[in-house]
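Quick one: structure tokens for this chain, please?
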Amino acid sequence: MAGPRNSKATGRDMVLSLAVLLVPVVLVVWFFTRTPDSPQIDQVDWRPVLAQARSQAGYPVLGPTLEPSGWKPVKARYADRGQTWVGDTVAAGNRWELGFLSSDQTYIGLNQSDQPGREAFIDAVTRSARADGSVSVDGHQWQRRVSDDDRTRALVSSQGSSVVVVVGDTDYRVLEEYVRMLRTS
């Protein structure tokens, strides 16, 4: 049963009580619905890593002739067979990787390796994508692959003793335009 009413309560008291309840609610709603600032993405100088890969890999290493307009280089690494790759893993072959963020903030990766068991390498970098036809880019055949959820697409080809995978969560047109920029020297 409710206690006796305060006969001295005023409209001001009611407004103060309401404010005490609403201010935390508004702060919680603001905190959980605000859009955070875009993260600072560090760009990398990929050209020295490409030069290292070309001098050490033992196969023709692909790289862009120029940086695609509006794209930001965010990853460049190379490891010889047996060297530490990512985390505590060991590179199963001579491995080259170059990653860009496109102008629409989509990651596009170039992966190349001469490791044995090419399908395991391809599956690892394409999210186990399945074959989806083929395309000729500048006279060179590329197999198209798409992930089971249709999000990730890849172009796969052989280059000397290595396999090359260009992959991204984008359409094939973007990947093909990027492949047109790739050269071995």
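Residues 11-33 form the longest helix (23 residues).
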